[in-house]
Write a structure and sequence with these properties.
RT_dom, 10 helices, mainly alpha, two-stranded parallel sheet, 8 strands, 329 residues
């Protein structure tokens, strides 16, 4: 019998999507770089980028297949991949009661309930309380699993869940709001039945109306409390406005980049226009210095306006600068 020894080098920070094809493309790129062939190196680098993109897509589909399958083993394998869970090889401390409580907890997430077998013995019920502290990495994942069966009841509605935020999006056609309002009522009932409390004070309603002839829309109520209707709403880091103008979102992004409030564009243009005009006035050698002629009148000091017959000339820099300096020197 002949055996072959093969050495495989594995790095601790190796990406999970790294496969044999990507490793071969990395070798080809490094070889082209060492040879100094720019054309070959450019081609190899492009092939490597394409290979990495395909490998990531294959890995994503693999994880999604785990989560979408009806096999609970594959579902938890997908969860382990996402959370980077590593099996502890050490012996676990505890007794059989702890294992039974964990089984009761995780059995709630089974896709298909186990078949009930008649048994003459009646066991006492067990109440299990599981608490996740705020900031735990598993909290969003467990909450997502807990609310997995919270789905829309109407085809015109969509429920978007991200961590502990839930958003109901309803499409209202022909002025019929019954499906949208019924969806909110069913969501409220589902939360009440599953021991979840809706914070009505933090709930906002945003109405995007495309109709030309707009009418008053009745307010939305949850458990008898009227929901506040906002003109803009922050959704997953993006400010959405009722007119979809994106002005608030753009202003916030620019404010975050610049570190402060942005000045008004009209005021900014006025200051720069006056600054440039004063430099021209102070420089007699400037070709446009003669356009700024002071008035002889002492009651209305300023500069003589330029005769303009077209709007293009009236809106030019020199005409606007003369008007600004005459109005506010």
């Amino acid at each position: 019998m002949v055996t072959v020894d093969k050495r495989i080098r594995v790095y601790p920070n190796q990406k999970p999507w790294m496969n044999r094809e990507v490793q071969q493309l990395v070798k080809e790129r490094n070889s082209a770089f060492r040879d100094g062939d720019r054309a070959h190196y450019s081609t190899a680098r492009a092939n490597l980028k394409r290979g990495i993109r395909e490998a990531k897509a294959d890995y994503r589909r693999k994880i999604e297949d785990h989560l979408d399958s009806n096999n609970s083993r594959q579902v938890w394998q997908g969860v382990q991949h996402i959370t980077n869970y590593k099996t502890n090889l050490g012996a676990a401390e505890g007794d059989a009661s702890l294992a039974e409580e964990l089984n009761l907890f995780f059995a709630r997430f089974e896709v298909e309930p186990p078949e009930a077998t008649p048994h003459p013995t009646v066991h006492s019920s067990t109440t299990l309380t599981v608490e996740e502290h705020e900031g735990c990495v598993l909290s969003p994942l467990l909450y997502t699993l807990y609310t997995h069966d919270c789905t829309p009841a109407h085809h015109s509605n969509t429920i978007v869940k991200f961590a502990d935020d839930t958003t109901v999006v309803g499409l209202i056609s022909g002025g019929d709001e019954s499906a949208y309002r019924d969806e909110v009522e069913q969501l409220t009932a589902w939360c009440r039945e599953n021991n979840l409390l809706l914070n009505t004070s933090k709930t906002k309603e945003l109405v995007i109306d495309y109709r030309k002839k707009k009418t008053d829309i009745p307010p939305l109520t949850i458990s008898g409390v009227c929901v506040e209707r906002a003109a803009d709403f922050r959704f997953l880091g993006v400010h959405m406005e009722e007119g979809l103008t994106w002005g608030v979102n753009t202003a916030e992004l620019l404010s975050w980049v610049t570190g402060g409030a942005l000045p008004n564009l009209r005021d900014l243009y006025t200051v720069r226009c006056k600054t440039k005009a004063n430099k021209i006035i102070a420089d007699p050698s400037h070709p446009s210095h003669g356009l700024f002629t002071k008035k002889l009148s002492k009651r209305k000091p300023g500069y003589v306006s330029i005769a303009a017959k077209t709007n293009r000339l009236k809106d030019s820099f020199y005409s606007q600068a003369i008007r600004m300096l005459s109005r506010d020197p």
